Amino acid sequence: MAAADTLTDLVRAELATPVDPRVTAMARALAADYPGSARAVLFYGSCLRMSELDGLMLDFYLIVSDYGDAYPRRWMAVANRLIPPNVFPFQHDGLIAKYAVLSEADFHRLNGPETRNVSVWARFAQPSRLVWAVDDTAANRAVVAVARAAPTLLAAAGREEGEEPLAWWRRAFALTYSVELRAERTGRAQSVVDADADRYARFSAPAIAAIAGHAYAGRWAQRRIEGKALSIARLAKASLTYAGGIDYLAWKINRHAGTKIEIKPWQRRWPLVAALTLVPRLMKSGAIR
After folding, report:
1. Of the four, 7, 131, 175, 203, which is 20 to 30 A from 169 by CA?
2. Can you say whether the dihedral through the CA atoms of 173, 26, 140, 68 is positive or negative?
3. Which residue ranges form the domains of the chain, and what is each CATH number?
4. How far apart (Å, rounded) are the C-alpha atoms in residues 158 and 241?
5. pTM here?
6. Residue 109 buriedness (CB in 10 A; 0-12 / 13-18 / 19+)
7. Contact, 101 vs 64, CB < 8 A?
8. Pair 120, 150: CB distance under 8 Å
9. Which residues make beta-bridge pairs with 51?
10. At what angle do helices 165-179 and 149-157 cross, to 10 degrees?
11. For residue 191, what pLDDT band results from cuts at 50, 70 and 90?
12. Dihedral angle computed from the Cα positions of residues 109, 110, 116 and 119, in that order, rounded to the nearest 10 degrees
């Protein structure tokens, strides 16, 4: 229990690290768009390390009490429940962002070992910030959920004989990158750790200790099949829920893979068809994996 408490303390302190005031203001404005259902807003991703945010796409998770309370249209709640999360664009005070919506229950579940899908626990095993919470209860629930992510990641990868902790982290992230459709170049998983090696060294002992009793390493072949299929399903769903989603997909792939994809007018008119036809071509060319 002491190890878990130590990990929770580390996560709590990390989540409370101050951010650019414009990020905090953006999170507050985002939460205001979901009155009565917004519980917490977390800031994550590569922009955490950036001092200049103009022109960048910020990443948030909006945690809500219930999907039914969050959306005026029932089909949006159903889509979020069946294939979480829903993802939307957002702009505030000259900054642009995308945010993913999860319920408190799903955020807790998807950070833990009860799900094979890596998308949430792989992200929140990395640094993040709690930039808004409706009250202390919501903040504490976010801390507890995020504290589940690092042990889930390491346990899922399993430790190889004689493996040093930082090498374990690197290999674990490399495995998660292999599961999703990724546009990032080879070596991205290693750079995640090397960009803040001291942080991962601090988290290693308590995260490893918190693994005790977890027996779910392996199954990566199955994860890859399920993960790629789920990624395609999410892209298809985003083409319907995310305004300009097909243009964002092209921007992201061009940025990370060095490609020069240009979206044609018909693809904007039929974004679902475009997403379903674009992804196989990009996988075949190696632009995404």
Report:
1. 131
2. negative
3. 8-221 (3.30.460.10), 223-285 (no CATH)
4. 37
5. 0.83
6. middle
7. yes
8. no
9. none
10. 90
11. confident
12. 180
The structure tokens listed for 146 are 């995020």
Give the pLDDT band (50/70/90) at residue 3: low
Measured distance CA(136)–CA(119) in Å, rounded: 26
Cα gap 212→214, rounded to integer Å: 6
pLDDT band at 178 (very low <50, low <70, confident <90, very high): confident
pLDDT by residue (tens digit) across 59-98? Answer: 999 999 999 999 999 999 999 999 999 988 899 999 999 9
Answer for the pair 27, 43: CB distance below 8 angstroms, yes or no.
Answer: yes
Decide if 61 contacts 107 (C-beta within 8 A): yes
Contacting residues for 51 by C-beta, under 8 A, at least 6 apart: 20
Element (H, E) at 80: helix 74-82
Tokens of 111: 């950070």
Q: Where are the alpha helices (DSSP H) in 101-258?
A: 104-110, 119-124, 136-147, 149-157, 165-179, 188-194, 197-209, 220-241, 245-257
DSSP conformational letter for 51: S
Contact indicator for 58, 88 with CB cutoff of 8 Å: no
CA pair distance 130, 272, nearest whole angstrom? 33
Say yes or no to pLDDT of 241 above 90.
Answer: no
Write the pLDDT tens digit of every residue in 110-151: 999 998 889 999 999 999 999 999 999 999 999 999 999 999
CA distance 266 to 115: 37
